[in-house]
Design a protein that fits this description.
Length: about 290
């Protein structure tokens, strides 16, 4: 596996491969790779000749007081996983390579309206940081397709809109959420969970399952579904450690609230378990 730290090197690698008629799949990540990331890579492998993964913990998308400093970094492990699954190249730039010495003064990309909803309402500047780094990465790695997870539903939506609006010549592919055995959506941040919190974290999935069961019984009133979800997440005995930051039932494209559950509608939530913030979602009608 090639490892590139410089923009010019990874770009040349793409150009050379394209000249040879190869198709390129690109999977941007922040590392600490798990099965969720690997599923994106597997999907990319099915669809492209050459697979490039990036690992870059992007400071621009972390707010003050968020976990940029302690975000898990496991480069050696990650490299082993990438080699094992057959990735062709890793792009692993440092912060200076991506932003020079003036990150806060960088040109940025703001995707309007949908960036302000759900997570955006609680993490000001987060999606500006995400859109900016993804646009930069797609410029550095001008692949044919780039792969993102539906775990971060709002993120893939924002990226699709950005790519469309800026005429970036790349197809964005969204891949299904990969879960642990108990249903917890895989996330690098799950590493922060203490063992007893790890058990509690499965309540997010449990609550979405309960919503799915209620929907199967023709309960479609949004308030009723929300209370089913809230009751499961906040049930005793760990109620005090669990805080729902948001629970929204909305149109999956506009993220505008709806008042009836119908096929295709998005249920999205962010929940704090102690200090750890977890997100999850379900599109009604899809496998959960
Ligand atoms: P991250 O390293 O957290 O920035 O994630 C990199 C990519 O992997 C993003 O497109 C995420 O949506 C995706 N991803 C993270 N966790 C999962 C998961 N459990 N299932 C599917 N995709 C995921």
């Amino acid at each position: 596996m090639q490892i590139y730290k410089k923009v010019s090197d990874v770009r040349n690698y793409v150009i050379l491969n394209k000249k040879e008629g190869k198709t390129i799949g690109f999977v941007p990540t922040m590392g600490c790779l798990h099965e969720g990331h690997l599923s994106l890579i597997s999907m990319a492998k099915e669809q492209s000749d050459i697979i490039i993964v990036s690992i870059f913990v992007n400071p621009l998308q972390f707010g003050p007081g968020e976990d940029y400093g302690k975000y898990p970094r496991e480069l050696e492990n990650d490299i082993e996983k990438l080699k094992k699954i057959g990735v062709n190249a890793l792009f692993h730039p440092d912060v200076n390579e991506m932003y020079g010495d003036n990150m806060t003064g960088t040109t940025y990309i703001e995707v309007p309206v949908i960036s302000q909803k759900l997570c955006g309402a609680y993490r000001p500047g987060h999606f500006r940081g995400v859109a900016t780094i993804v646009a930069k990465l797609l410029n550095c790695v001008p692949a044919d397709k780039a792969y993102f997870g539906a775990k971060d539903w709002q993120q893939q939506l924002i990226i699709k809109k950005m790519v469309h609006d800026l005429n970036i010549n790349m197809k964005i592919v969204a891949c299904p959420i990969i879960r642990e055995r108990d249903g917890l959506a895989m996330s690098s941040r799950n590493e922060y969970l203490a063992p007893e919190d790890r058990k509690t974290a499965a309540r997010l999935y449990e609550s979405l399952k309960a919503a799915a069961n209620a929907y199967d019984k023709n309960i479609t009133d949004v308030n009723e579904i929300k209370s089913i979800i809230e009751n499961i997440i906040q049930k005793e005995p760990r109620k005090s450690d669990l805080k729902i930051q948001y629970l929204e039932i909305c149109d999956p494209e506009t993220l505008e609230a709806v008042d009836q559950l119908t096929r295709g509608v998005l249920i999205a939530m962010a929940v704090f378990i102690g200090e750890v913030r977890l997100i999850d979602n379900w599109i009604i009608g899809q496998n959960l």
